């Protein structure tokens, strides 16, 4: 069973930057580099929405239109860690941010939360204007 732990959230001003980390541990079905790993976020009263992610095998990256050009996802497979660098933060980025992983998700389902069995507990990001 895989466990995921997010960190790096906090309270910042609009225009500031944060870097979130997601560290995987436990028993993996495959090498970590083979997993699709993604970031979702959820604001109060809103649906959980896809933010950014790696497809399986650590290949292509995908971003929501709302964060393109501002957020960058990266991974360090030797450390079983995925990062989300968030620049030029806006108040509408305020949410709980979750990482999730799957060894079996197909590319067309990468942006659907139901595709992922392994989830972290989330880290709060609050951006004030």
Give your account of this protein's structure.
The structure is a single chain. This protein has 129 residues and is mainly β. Helices cover 0% and strands 49% of the residues. It has strands at 2-7, 10-13, 18-26, 36-42, 49-54, 61-63, 71-76, 81-86, 95-102, 118-119, 123-128. The strands form 2 sheets. Strands 2, 4, 5, 6, 9, 10 and 11 form a 7-stranded mixed β-sheet that branches. A 4-stranded antiparallel β-sheet has the order 1-3-8-7, with no helix packed on it. A hairpin with a 6-residue loop joins strand 5 (49-54) and strand 6. The radius of gyration is 14 Å and the shape is globular. The mean pLDDT is 95.
Instruction: Provide the β-strand percentage band.
Output: over 45%
The rounded Rg comes to 14 Å
Q: What average pLDDT do the residues reach?
A: 95
Number of alpha- plus pi-helical segments = 0
Number of strands: 11
Sketch the major β-sheet.
Answer: 7 strands, mixed
Q: Work out the helicity level.
A: under 10%
What structural class do helix, strand and pairing data support?
Answer: mainly beta
Give the SSE order as H and E letters: EEEEEEEEEEE
Through-space gap between termini: 40 Å
Can you tell me the residue ranges where pLDDT is under 50 for at least 5 consecutive residues? none
Give the CA-based shape: globular
Sequence-ordered SSE layout with sheet pairings:
Blueprint: E1 2-7, E2 10-13, E3 18-26, E4 36-42, E5 49-54, E6 61-63, E7 71-76, E8 81-86, E9 95-102, E10 118-119, E11 123-128
Parallel strand pairs: 2-11
Antiparallel strand pairs: 1-3, 3-8, 4-5, 4-9, 5-6, 7-8, 9-10, 9-11
């Amino acid at each position: 069973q895989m466990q995921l732990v997010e960190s790096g959230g906090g309270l910042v001003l609009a225009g500031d930057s944060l870097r979130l980390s997601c560290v995987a541990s436990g028993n993996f079905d495959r090498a970590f580099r083979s997993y699709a790993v993604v970031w979702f976020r959820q604001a109060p009263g809103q649906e959980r929405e896809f933010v950014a992610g790696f497809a399986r095998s650590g290949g292509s990256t995908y971003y929501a239109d709302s964060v393109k050009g501002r957020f960058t996802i990266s991974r360090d497979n030797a450390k079983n860690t995925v990062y989300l660098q968030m620049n030029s933060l806006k108040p509408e980025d305020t949410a709980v941010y979750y990482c999730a992983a799957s060894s079996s998700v197909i590319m067309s389902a990468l942006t659907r939360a139901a595709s992922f069995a392994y989830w972290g507990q989330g880290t709060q990001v609050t951006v004030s204007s």
